[in-house]
Design a protein that fits this description.
This protein is mainly α. The protein has one domain (26-136). It has helices spanning 2-7, 18-40, 46-51, 63-85, 88-109, 115-136. α2 packs antiparallel against α6 and α4 runs antiparallel to α5 (88-109).
């Protein structure tokens, strides 16, 4: 007990590799997309629009629109894995580029939206900006001579 007073009771912690942090951020982004889209179904007229074959601002539901939106939403899901599996240089640049792209997508889609969507948008922009920051500041390791 006396020893704890002298040294302080620091909580145990481990160093988390940047790959794991970025992967967890992508997973969080995916969850936010799902919740935001789900809550969007409760907006008046949303389900009726779906029944009429319309995808909100994208217009009529076509195979091309569905494929395009599927690709757009699959990328963050796949980045959960790729952030762990790719080699550092490619990993870093993919996360910087895709993080910026998905930040911009959210910023473009937020104006004029309902308050809940703006909330989710702010959370998603924060998460994708953190992805870019972690990737940009990827820790370097000293080169070793063989």
């Amino acid at each position: 007990m006396d020893r704890m007073k002298k040294t302080g009771a620091a909580l145990d912690d481990i160093k988390i590799h940047v790959k794991i942090k970025i992967s967890a951020l992508w997973a969080s982004v995916v969850f936010c997309y799902i919740y935001g889209d789900y809550f969007g179904l409760y907006q008046p007229g949303a389900l009726q629009g779906m029944l009429e074959g319309k995808m909100g601002p994208l217009g009529p539901t076509t195979q091309g629109i569905l494929l395009g939106t599927s690709v757009m939403l699959a990328i963050p899901s796949v980045m959960v894995f790729l952030s762990l599996a790719l080699k550092p240089n490619l990993n870093r640049w993919m996360n910087i580029i895709l993080g910026v792209i998905y930040t911009v997508i959210m910023l473009v889609t937020m104006p004029g939206a309902w308050a809940f969507y703006i909330f989710w948008g702010i959370v998603e922009v924060t998460l994708t900006a953190l992805i870019v920051c972690y990737a940009w500041n990827w820790p370097k390791q000293e080169a070793t001579l063989k």
